[in-house]
Amino acid sequence: MSGLRERKKEATRAALSWAAVRLTAERGWSAVKVEDIAAAVGVSPRTYNNYFSSKAEAIAFRHLERSLRLAAELRHGPPGEPLWEAITRAALRQLEPGPEVEHMPPQGPDEWAAGLRVMLAEPALEAEMLRAGKIAEKELAAAIADRTGMNLGTDLYPRLVAASVMAASNVALELFVQGGTGEPMEVLLPRALRMVAAGLPTP
Amino acid sequence: MSGLRERKKEATRAALSWAAVRLTAERGWSAVKVEDIAAAVGVSPRTYNNYFSSKAEAIAFRHLERSLRLAAELRHGPPGEPLWEAITRAALRQLEPGPEVEHMPPQGPDEWAAGLRVMLAEPALEAEMLRAGKIAEKELAAAIADRTGMNLGTDLYPRLVAASVMAASNVALELFVQGGTGEPMEVLLPRALRMVAAGLPTP
DNA sequence: GCGAATTTTTGCGTGCCACGCATTTTCTGT
DNA sequence: ACAGAAAATGCGTGGCACGCAAAAATTCGC
What is any Pfam family matched here (chains A, B) (predicted)? Predict the structure, then answer.
């Protein structure tokens, strides 16, 4: 309905999420209390839980948003475009930093990878990230079902495509974060997507 | 090294996990306290946390074990067998109820599905299940890398296959649990595996 | 503009959970 | 049987999620 109120809410949510990430990167996950995150945003600790139902959720929120955008973009893109091209294009676009990162210290890909390693080392955070991915996967499957005219409740295809896309994204990210190959996400991600789309026969 | 001690530990761990599942199915997740689980097994609450580092972990443990068996079976199977046949065979075998279920009330597939729905409705449990799947995926990727002589640190293939296998399993399970099609897992799972192996072109 | 209604924030209190540490009990190897 | 190792337990602490009701802020009808 209204604009200002909801935008303010989203701003607070984003600020909390962002503060949680920053503080965790600085001090480590267990050293940051909910109270600290709330204080960094200038809000009461009780209010934090009005926005996020767990400490971990604030950190996974950015991941969730980006993943959800993928599904949204798939819905609003040109309907005629072949499915996998649309998916690849939408996935690649999520790699571009959004406007919210403007007033952050500029992060190279190395710092980003290091930060992610820290996050995923914490079991609670890993679990919450995975849950976020799963939520986005549901949206993605629904979008694909719409696009292909298939039945989400009975057809394997939409869910399989959605799950495979998330799998490819995660694998590409893992390899990037682990840094075995020096290749950037812009290279790894499309390659992984092409592979799952084409099939994975024994080489 | 020793036998009795470790077997007793595993027995306790399994008993705790089993008690957690049973109590949760009966009363619901939030109504069962760690104290209850411990009491059901005849062990101190403090001891529970020597086995599982969270309340949810006990429930995901059965899922974790089964998923890990898949990787183990892939390692110990005939090395000559084509990769995807070996995977499918190993995956199907995990559907057979293990010997630990012998003295449980016989569960039809419907009760099983209902139980799973309850579990996955709880965010904390869903997250923990996903984490268990992720851990197993790592093992699976390593097994596949070994089998194909590929490099886990630089090649996408092993991780992609592992992730796709887990994705297919999860999708098959979702569809089964949701029950849109009346088909059993023994049918859905191989079909999903065949699809991800062959590729997912727009139909 | 202004006051009423709705929404959001906050303070407070409760119950539970994860875990460190020291102690006791149980098991193993010789 | 005994010494040493490993596991179970008791106790205490800090923190987190959340229900509830009061207070503050914002929207909307007029």
Answer: TetR_N
Q: Which residue of A has its CA nearest to B81?
A: A202
Name the residue of chain A whose CA is nearest to B82's CA.
Answer: A202
Q: Which nucleotide is nearest to B45 (CA to C1')?
A: D9
Q: Could you tell me the domains of chain A?
A: 1-53 (1.10.10.60), 59-198 (1.10.357.10)
Q: Find the Å distance, CA of residue A8 to C1' of nucleotide C14.
A: 31
- Measured distance CA(B203)–CA(B194) in Å, rounded: 15
pLDDT tens sequence across B35-52: 999 999 999 999 999 999
A18: Cβ contacts below 8 Å, ≥ 6 apart: A62, A100
Alpha-carbon distances, residue A113 vs A27, A99, A104, B44 (angstroms): 17, 20, 16, 42
Contact A192 B160 (CB under 8 A): yes
Cβ A169 vs Cβ A129: under 8 Å: no
Q: How far apart are CA A50 and CA A12, in angstroms?
A: 11
As a whole number, the mean pLDDT across chain A is 93
Question: pLDDT per residue over A95-137, tens digit each?
Answer: 987 766 656 677 777 888 888 888 899 999 999 999 999 999 9
